[in-house]
Structures are given as structure tokens and as C-alpha cells.
Design brief:
With about 30 residues, this protein is mainly alpha-helical. The radius of gyration is 13 Å and the shape is rod-shaped. The protein has one helix and no strands. Helix content is about 95%, strand content about 0%.
Length: about 30
């Protein structure tokens, strides 16, 4: 149960990080 919650948090952090990277790349090019 705890592992699932941790995984969801990690997944959320990764998606947020990727979104920010994509946004920076969009404004860069």
C-alpha cells in the first residue's frame, strides 16, 4: 500500500519535471 503511494508520488514528480522540461524546450526553440 505504502509502496503504491510512493510510486504515484514519483510518477507525479516525473511527469511534472518532464512538463517543465518540455515547456523550456518549447520556449528555447
Amino acid at each position: 500500500m505504502v509502496f503504491t503511494v510512493q510510486f504515484k508520488k514519483l510518477e507525479f514528480l516525473c511527469s511534472t519535471y518532464v512538463d517543465e522540461i518540455s515547456g523550456e524546450l518549447d520556449s528555447f526553440f
